[in-house]
Amino acid sequence: MKRILLMTALFSAFTFVSCKEKASSKIKTENVAVAAERDEASKALPIMSFNKSEHDFGTITQGTPQETVFTFTNTGTGPLILTDAKSSCGCTIPEYPKNTPIAPGESGEMLVKFNGSGQNQITKTITVTANTAKKSETLRIKAFVNPKGATPVGPTAN
Fold first, then answer.
1. With bands split at pLDDT 50, 70 and 90, how would you rate the model's confidence at 4?
2. pLDDT digits over 22-36, tens only?
3. Whole-number Å distance between alpha carbons of 90 and 33
4. CA of residue 75 relative to chain centroid, distance
5. Which residues does 108 contact at the CB level (< 8 Å), separation at least 6?
6. Whole-angstrom Cα distance, residue 136 to residue 144?
7. What's the rounded Cα separation, in Å, for the pair 134 and 104?
8. Predicted pLDDT at 31
9. What is the per-residue DSSP string for 84-112?
């Protein structure tokens, strides 16, 4: 046991003594300037602000296609880039300016198409991925879908 402890102490001492160079002598001033610029640029983040986060189509007949537009504005200080938009099912398709930089203060549109499938109350989500601090935003569409040929549910006029 003493032998192992002695070997460990000698190895540690050798490692400590062999690191004679000062770390500060290895720093290059041009790398410091590049890092400072990169750090400053990383502070310029875009912020994606939507005019609405949810749209209600109301009561629709099954199979009737619906569309809505979500308008967004870059309220941040850096260029906004939408990298992806996925819906919770194949019945909802988002169309958006993929990988197109949107300058601070500029706006864009996301067209969301819903094919009218399903029955009763439906809610679908669209997850928008972008280069913002939050990384993603969630939008919702909803509708009450009546089957084709069904009579509306509710009170009737006499």
1. confident
2. 666 667 777 777 777
3. 48
4. 15
5. 71, 72, 73, 74, 80, 82, 96, 97, 100, 102
6. 27
7. 17
8. 76
9. EEEESSTTEEEE--BT--B-TT-EEEEEE
Mean predicted confidence (pLDDT) in 57-62: 94
Residue with the two structure tokens 């819903």:
114
**How does DSSP classify residue 151?**
P
**Amino acid identity for residue 8 in this structure:** T
The pTM assigned to this predicted structure is 0.69
Name the nearest CA neighbour of 67 among 32, 48, 42, 94: 94
Burial of 48 (0-12, 13-18, 19+ CB in 10 A): buried
Q: How far is CA 127 from CA 17, 84, 97, in A?
A: 55, 8, 15
pLDDT digits (tens, 9 = 90+) for 69-102: 999 999 999 999 999 999 999 999 999 999 999 9
Cα–Cα nearest to 116, from 152, 52, 151, 68: 68
Question: Residue written as tokens 């067209």?
Answer: 111
